[in-house]
Task: structure prediction
Amino acid sequence: MVSPFDFPVLAASIIEVNPGLTFWTLVTFLVVFVVLRWKAWGPILQMVQEREKAILDSIDAAKRERQETEKILGEQKQAIAEARREAAELIKKNQEEVERTREELLARSRKDAEELLVTARRQIQDEKLKAMAEVRGHAVDLALQAAQRLVESTLDEHRQRQLVNEFITTIEARGRGSSKPAA
Result:
């Protein structure tokens, strides 16, 4: 059996230059370089350029979106501030309206109370005048009754005293609640 080490080894030294090998190495290198440049280098560069362009476009789009987002965020903050200001104004207006309504109701209540008081005083005065007129009427009736009795009876002193006493008793009885005149 033959071992792989049995073949004669062509030993070349690093320092030794072999013109045939160098020629074919250069030819192979040039052929591979031309083929790679013709078939692979163009598409690879095109893909790299497309990728670079896509990355740059993505960066630009991200910057535009960020600016747009910051703009929208600013607008939203402004809208929120405006909404808060409007809410504060509405609250203030509502408080003022409630206060104004309360004052109007208090004024109306005071006016109604004063009107009721005036009406009550007027009614009391009217009732007082009616009562005084009624008392005067009763006094006149009593005086007339007393005069009638005096005229009907004899005018001796004893009889006059008796009539006056009866009249006083009648007045006292009427003052206690009896409305019946003594005859």
In short: The longest helix spans residues 19-152.
